């Protein structure tokens, strides 16, 4: 593959992507005389239209994306996002309305928000939702803040949050950021939270249990109601990390499992493209007890008109400008309404089926530390391949040569050399088979020709990078660096 030059390197003086006819009226350029307007910006690239199009099209092809191929990045739910969502979100009435517009002019937008809140509450069995948090991690922090506000108001915010050792890294970070000390609970042999261990750790100093269900191994925490009973009996709260709702949506509801507060990742379960650092949305749902503490403003309806209620003295306050990442919410609503209840249920069913097909097809080639049945994802490891000096990083890099995105690596932390695989519901059997065949071939290569795997990728835009240097000292100005040398 040829290295794509920087647009500055393609630039040539006088090249333009447009042409206008000769001016046939008197020039009024001197009207701008006293304004800070420049004729030319020094060093600004000058290119023709076709050069711009080719440059950015070629750049767009150097990265993998869901529109190009399979993307089984576990825990991230990289499903294909139907284009109808984009179409709806790009309607002028949505994307051009100003967030500070008078409420009379944006009643439709407020209805979109309120309807989404109500549908999410219905789908999760919670009493109320706030759509403000920008991502899952911020949703976790907001959830913790609700609990802290509730307990604090009653005299003691408590000190500890219990989190299983399989949790996503954002869980302990959010609890810590909210002023809590994190106490880890060890998973048992099944990969789930041990009830005995929970009971031992649950004291009146514990504010909450943060649980992910299904957990990051893809295992459903079947004892969740018993756990909630243990936590509630000591006056604590159950927080559920809902990032894995793709496994449950339309089938069962966390609210019915006695969860008190939950966040969802609209950019995962509810289908907004993510992974490029674009806007996300991590709504938080709460049971009645925690509702008065939700972020401001609350959208309400009176006499057929929506308005924003800022008069909630117990609220934790604002956590986002205006009302969250509006267009992500529009996409989520489009997704929910286009699939309907039955369609959403099918999402979960097929996601689980696809994952189990992959798991069953590869269980001989790749070690599964936990034999417990799994839902929407499964966590293989590199244990068999390590015998030949091939690690999960090598397997991941080799997959790039097959035009596939690697699974999530080295997470959850309780599986050494983890390859966490989440195919999602949007993949056909053909696409799953392409992945399975590639994984089988890599396992074969690891035995017969391990060097091919260890030196991968061979066909990508750049070859194997030094991970640390690539992250800490990226070469952004190729030419200059070369000159220095
Ligand atoms: C993705 C994820 C998060 C964090 O969500 P962001 O939107 O990336 O902040 C938290 N927990 C789990 C289990 C996740 O998969």
Automatic annotation (TrEMBL):
<dbReference type="Pfam" id="PF21478">
    <property type="entry name" value="GcvP2_C"/>
</dbReference>
<dbReference type="InterPro" id="IPR020581">
    <property type="entry name" value="GDC_P"/>
</dbReference>
<dbReference type="GO" id="GO:0005960">
    <property type="term" value="C:glycine cleavage complex"/>
</dbReference>
<dbReference type="InterPro" id="IPR015424">
    <property type="entry name" value="PyrdxlP-dep_Trfase"/>
</dbReference>
<dbReference type="InterPro" id="IPR023012">
    <property type="entry name" value="GcvPB"/>
</dbReference>
<feature type="domain" description="Glycine cleavage system P-protein N-terminal">
    <location>
        <begin position="45"/>
        <end position="295"/>
    </location>
</feature>
<dbReference type="InterPro" id="IPR049316">
    <property type="entry name" value="GDC-P_C"/>
</dbReference>
<dbReference type="InterPro" id="IPR015422">
    <property type="entry name" value="PyrdxlP-dep_Trfase_small"/>
</dbReference>
<dbReference type="GO" id="GO:0019464">
    <property type="term" value="P:glycine decarboxylation via glycine cleavage system"/>
</dbReference>
<dbReference type="Pfam" id="PF02347">
    <property type="entry name" value="GDC-P"/>
</dbReference>
<dbReference type="GO" id="GO:0016594">
    <property type="term" value="F:glycine binding"/>
</dbReference>
<feature type="domain" description="Glycine dehydrogenase C-terminal">
    <location>
        <begin position="348"/>
        <end position="448"/>
    </location>
</feature>
<dbReference type="InterPro" id="IPR015421">
    <property type="entry name" value="PyrdxlP-dep_Trfase_major"/>
</dbReference>
<keyword id="KW-0560">Oxidoreductase</keyword>
<dbReference type="GO" id="GO:0005829">
    <property type="term" value="C:cytosol"/>
</dbReference>
<dbReference type="InterPro" id="IPR049315">
    <property type="entry name" value="GDC-P_N"/>
</dbReference>
<protein>
    <recommendedName>
        <fullName>glycine dehydrogenase (aminomethyl-transferring)</fullName>
        <ecNumber>1.4.4.2</ecNumber>
    </recommendedName>
</protein>
<keyword id="KW-0663">Pyridoxal phosphate</keyword>
<dbReference type="GO" id="GO:0004375">
    <property type="term" value="F:glycine dehydrogenase (decarboxylating) activity"/>
</dbReference>
<dbReference type="GO" id="GO:0030170">
    <property type="term" value="F:pyridoxal phosphate binding"/>
</dbReference>
